[in-house]
Amino acid sequence: MKVIVIGAGLGGLALANGLGRAGIDVAVYERAQSPLIRRQGYRLHLSDVGIDALTSVMAPQRRAAFWATAHKPAPERERQGEPG
Q1: How many beta carbons lie within 10 A of that of residue 58, not counting itself?
Q2: pLDDT truncated to tens, each residue of the chain (84 aa)?
Q3: Which domain holds residue 37?
Q4: Beta-carbon neighbour count of residue 45 at 10 Å?
Q5: What is the pTM of this model?
Q6: N or C: which end of the chain has fewer CB within 10 A?
Q7: Which residues form the FAD-binding domain (predicted)?
Q8: Number of domains observed in the structure of the chain
Q9: Is residue 5 a contact partner of residue 15, using CB atoms and an 8 Å limit?
Q10: Following DSSP, what letter does each residue of 8-74 receive, concatenated?
């Protein structure tokens, strides 16, 4: 089976990652020619529940890249179990 995901936003890419981890062949199509055309998603805030949902569908390498490039909150706002 092959699944086509229309839209490379947060939801589309999360879906594609989850499907790929489940062994499903997936292709993602995006209308915008470049991420620089529209500034959507810039400084996107995710709650703890959103971060948990997003990272749960990521392959380990992508999860590591997510944590390596994510903004680090002030110490009083750090999440339990977040890589330091």
Answers
A1: 19
A2: 999 999 988 889 889 999 999 999 999 999 887 766 766 655 677 888 988 988 888 889 989 998 998 877 666 655 566 555
A3: 2-77
A4: 6
A5: 0.61
A6: C
A7: 2-44
A8: 1
A9: yes
A10: -SHHHHHHHHHHHHTT-EEEEE-SSS-TTTS-TTTT----HHHHHHHHHTS-HHHHHHHHHHSPPPP
